[in-house]
Amino acid sequence: MSNPSIRKCFTIYLLKTKPEIERYEPLLKDNWYQGCEIFYPFTQPLDHQREYQETVLALINKYPVEVVLHLPYGRENNIATKVNLDRTMKILKDGIDFAAGFNTSKLTLHPGELVGDLSREEALELAINNTRELGRYANKYNMKIVVENLVTPNQLCSNKEETKYFLERVNLPNVLLNIDCGHAYASGERDLASYVYYLKDYIAHLHVNDNSGTDTHGLIGTGSIDFHSYFKALKEIKYEGLFCAEVLHKDIDDLIVTAEAMEAVWRKV
Description:
alpha/beta, TIM Barrel, 8-stranded parallel barrel, 10 helices, 8 strands, 14% strand, globular
């Protein structure tokens, strides 16, 4: 792709094998994408961890790409509970250390979920404090933490008001927002333009995917999200970060179609 109008990014999931990762090369070689969002594969056998690290490094060292790392997430890596919190924080800091080996610019972080040991207010306060600690830890590598909005009511930052409150309370210049438009839409935030305007001071990264009201991470056009108004709002606030295609894909053709779809929408708004 010559002269892309936006900088796009795709994910390299932690279970991907060496041949699977190597098959992504045309996406970078032909300039379909300008970034990768990778993962910390600490749950995998050591030989797979080494293979993932070495293969991703070999790929990104060939091209001038921006690297983002998605930190471990889910109930077993939950910063909004005191259950196994020391273990969780160690894993997340180890993930930040791992990210440093890729010259990573940003770290996607889930703000956590309620598991029954704390009230929402208590869980929110704990997650804010833990995010602040992780932000300070990441700052030694000049990395930004980008907090991802979530979906269900038991998850934190599943509406724009709580998301803004969360970021205001963390109050660190390197802790910003990763908008997952599919998460926002599935949580009931159907007016994504208003979502952008409300949170415009914090937006530093995007996860782009489509759905019809449930979190399916579909290709653009397979759901009912109004990408025209969403991208128009992003253009109006002068967003210049990555558009990361966090979509379930069969092969690189799906990612090329997604890149073309994002470009087409952006050029029309």
